[in-house]
Predict the structure of 4-aminobutyrate--2-oxoglutarate transaminase.
Amino acid sequence: MNAPQKPENLNAPHTNAAWHQRRLDATPRGVGVMGDFFIDRAKNAEFWDIEGRRFIDFAGGIAVLNTGHVHPKVQAAIAAQLQRFTHSCYQVVPYAEYVALAERINAIVPIEGKVKTAFFSTGAEAIENAVKIARSSTGRSGVIAFGGAFHGRSMFSVALTGKVQPYKAGFGPFPPEIYHVPFPCHCSSLADTQKAMEQVFKCDIEPSRVAAIVFEPVQGEGGFNPIQPAAVKWLRALCDQHGILLIADEVQTGFARTGKMFAMEHYGVSPDLMTMAKSMAGGTTLSAVSGKAAIMDGPAPGGLGGTYAGNPLAIAASHAVLDVMAEEKLPERAQLLGERLVAHLNGAKARYPRIGDVRGLGAMVACEFIDPATGAPDADTTKKVQTAALKRGLLLLTCGVYGNVIRYLFPLTIEDSVFAEALGVLDAAMAEVLA
């Protein structure tokens, strides 16, 4: 065995190109990386790479930074906790902050009746534990999800995911008794979904063996597709009819992104279980499952948890995030910024026929690019707009089953001047590619 090598000094002068090559040599290609530059420091909606170039961040670490990079209150909360203790494993030596955060979450989630919450580390963990809870509580095994969904990359959560490339290709076979139906949004009717669900119940699994139906109120990776309000009510009625639990995956939609603390508040329907992660802890690793108390108590002691689940630093960060959300009125801010962005994109749509649907809920906004002659998805143009924006210092993300959607995930704390600057950069990028 070779002796471990002393790492080079990270503070020594290096270029992005040098680190890019070191990344290729040291890490596997399966960890896909969009940028060929490396972040050095960040503040709110801006960051700088190791060569000093400035970027406006409209990606937010994939919806993790609703409170921005290094929010001073979140930073202070982590620093204070760092002085006290960093780990005990909650299941061995509990800490009051975990319980207090569960109480705060229980009080705000849109779930009827008495609620309980358990904490984990990632969104995929939250989804898998929600399914475990549903199976334990109901004594059933089947799970139904939707085409275009994204629920994570772990083996069970990726089986629930409804997008093959790049998440599922080459990784099968997947766990059994998972079924998919079309997602009822702007591109698929509720009638199509109802017909497919009936087919699943007739041909694949009887309703009495289905533990849960899992859905995103707004699909993330699938293309920022808001579910039809009538579909949420139908799902609730269907679950009630057959004793199935309804799980709302709010990993990406939660914590003010859609103009409400949680997207389910837009629909007036109470799920049985909810998953959350991403922006709940300001960039630290924390996720949660909240649900009706009787359901959450289904698993026996020891059935839930994890060595790092509910890490003290992340718990402290999440308390600070909840304070910031209230003090800075971030749900209202999300609604305002989302309306501005939608109006701006609709103005661009009037100029450029390659812009197709503009959609969103609050500040969870997206626009798609199409071939104007056929209406077919145009992933090539989408990539060109993303690249042109990046060249000008604006970081954007794409999504959608066909890769033809740009999604906008700026911090909700973004300054008005930086937001306006970003829209100007976006205009320039679109003009270069679409004019």
Observations:
- DSSP finds 13 helices and 17 strands in the chain.
- The chain has a mean pLDDT of 95.
- The two ends are 59 Å apart (CA to CA).
- Residues 11 and 50 are 10 Å apart (CA to CA).
